[in-house]
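Mods, move this if it's the wrong board.
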Amino acid sequence: MASIQDQIVLITGASSGIGAACARAFAQGGAKLVLVARRLERLEELAQELKQYGTQVYCLQLDVCDRTFVKSALRSLPEPWHNIDILINNAGLSRGLDKFYTADIQDWEEMIDTNIKGLLYITRLLAPKMVERGRGHIINIGSIAGHQTYPGGNVYCATKAAVKALSEGMKMDLLGTPVRVTSVDPGMVKTEFSQVRFHGDVERANKVYQGITPLSAEDVAEIVYFCTTRPPHVNISELIVLATDQASATLVHRYTE
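Not the wrong board. Structure tokens:
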């Protein structure tokens, strides 16, 4: 296992769910963290929690969809935080589960801007420095939805299919450099994901996971950590992880009492 001690890890969408779980996993491994999200108060609470591991944390309030702000914010990182060793593109969301012909176009805009454009803006700024320094690892959090479309998933599935294609393209374009690219593509993970999808409808969100044991954010974070701690000559390009109760994007076994 390769050490990540004192490596600088930038995590987008770090205020909750998989992003926050990754922050905890990498803090325990001795990494230094740049935590990125729109909700600064959540980041600061997390940073306070991570002090128990003795790790250094820099909180950056940032909307990854704002290209101009992304550019200025990353270029103005304090000098000790300039050289990002590991980028975890976790920021992403789903909005709605409607048929495409009745869907809210604003929901489409938000998914496309966050899941595709946000990932591109961040990676485009950080990848050249990784190439220049001769080291780095880009982790894109995709989804089973990028491999298999499901009813009502239309645009969300399309954005995650784009993440899959972008991860493959990045790997091809970085061939010949030591920079690694990994896509970690989970199925059902119990986080705030469904609450966001259903615009805060907690009851409807809870029904998504009713009768099954879904993945946890910590399950996914452990896998991300594993990928980044392989020896430099090993690159885990793509990894699909599902709960035992889930066989595909649409096949789920639910237990009844």
